[in-house]
Design a protein that fits this description.
heterodimer; A: mainly beta; seven-stranded mixed β-sheet; 54% strand; B: mainly beta; 12 strands
């Protein structure tokens, strides 16, 4: 158990819908990262937040957005969902934005 | 841009034997981290081992060790005394000091009883 929690574990929804994925980092970690793992794209970095501020953006679609709250938990919002958004979404955290990232168990999203 | 390449999509090893997974990377940075992550069927991403580029000594964690060749930009993982629980997808990964992790496409390791 890495200490990073993600909810929900599974999510099934329809195209065009909007969902919110939640992540709680390890106690004391200020940085939160989001990754998408799909069959065709592998593991891809989406976005990084440090202590509430966006630090870096990767291959994140405009339909996707994220934020980190004062209590350091983070939410990833996915809207206008498409079939191709079906994937495993991971959150990871570390104390300072440098070095090893500890991954949560992931949220498995299925868009029908 | 940094890249990570794992040239072996799948590998098999007999239980109790030793296996080496290959990884090469490309970067112009001198200070960075390299990782091996394990993803078992549960899909959890588990850190196996990490290497800091400025350290010449190869990292080891129990049965897991790496061969880090900085000039050749090579970072292989050796698993000794393979166990059934080692069966998983293994990802080689790279990170700058203040940046995202870039993952290779993975090597699926099968352990033969």
């Amino acid at each position: 158990d890495s200490g990073v929690t993600q909810t929900p574990k599974h999510l099934i929804t329809a195209t065009g819908q909007r969902v919110t994925l939640r992540c709680s980092p390890r106690s004391g970690d200020l940085s939160v990262y989001w990754y998408q793992q799909s069959l065709d794209q592998g593991l891809q970095f989406l976005i990084h937040y440090y202590n509430g501020e966006e630090r870096a953006k990767g291959n994140i679609l405009e339909r996707f957005s994220a934020q980190q709250f004062p209590d350091l938990h983070s939410e990833l919002n996915l809207s206008s969902l498409e079939l191709g958004d079906s994937a495993l979404y991971f959150c990871a955290s570390n104390p300072s934005g440098v070095g090893t990232q500890y991954f949560g168990p992931g949220t498995r999203l299925l868009v029908l | 841009a940094q890249t990570v390449t794992q040239s072996q999509p799948e590998m098999s090893v007999q239980e109790a034997e030793t296996v080496t997974l290959s990884c090469t990377y490309d970067t112009s940075e001198s200070d960075y981290y390299l990782f091996w992550y394990k993803q078992p069927p549960s899909r959890q991403m588990i850190l196996v081992i990490r290497q800091e580029a400025y350290k010449q000594q190869n990292a080891t964690e129990n049965r897991f060790s790496v061969n880090f060749q900085k000039a050749a930009k090579s970072f292989s993982l050796k698993i000794s005394d393979s166990q059934l629980g080692d069966a998983a997808m293994y990802f080689c990964a790279y990170s700058n000091r203040d940046d995202k992790i870039i993952f290779g496409k993975g090597t699926r390791l099968h352990i033969l009883p």
